[in-house]
Amino acid sequence: LERGAKNQFSTFSNFITTINQKKEGIGNRNSPTQLVIPNIKNVRDLPPICLDVRQKQRISIDTLPQELKAPIPPDPSLPIRTKTVKDFQDDVEKAKSSGDWKAVHDFYSTTFDSFLEINAAFKKDTNSPFSTIEDSGIDAKFVNVVYDALLNTPQDVQKSVLKGIINGLLQEWKGPRTKDDLRAYCILLQNPQFSNTSTYVIYAHLLRQIAALTEADHHFLVHWSKKISQRRFKQLVDRLLQFISLRLFPAKPEEFPPMVKCTWWIPSATKVLALFNAANSLISPSIISYTDFYNSTLDHIDLMEEYHSWQCYGNSHRFSFCQYPFIISIAAKKVIIQRDSEQQMISIARQSLVDKVSRRQKPDMNMLFLNVKVRRTHLVSDSLDELARKRADLKKKLKVTFVGEAGLDMGGLTKEWFLLLIRQIFHPDYGMFTYHKDSHCHWCSSFKCDNYSEFRLVGALMGLAVYNSITLDIRFPPCCYKKLLSPPIVPCDHNTLVGICDVTLDDLFQIMPELAHGLSELLSYEGNVEEDFYSTFQVFQEEFGVIKSYNLKPNGDKIPVTNQNRKEYVQLYVDFLLNKSIYKQFAAFYYGFHSVCASYALLLLRPEEVEILVCGSPELDMSALQRSTQYEGYQKTDLTIRYFWDVVLGFSLDLQKKLLHFATGSDRVPVGGMADLNFKISKSETSTNWLPVAHTCFNQLCLPPYKNKKELKQKLIIGISNAEGFGLE
Question: Regarding the domain delimited by 616-722, which CATH topology (the fold level of the hierarchy) does it fall under?
Answer without folding.
Answer: Hect, E3 ligase catalytic fold (3.30.2410)
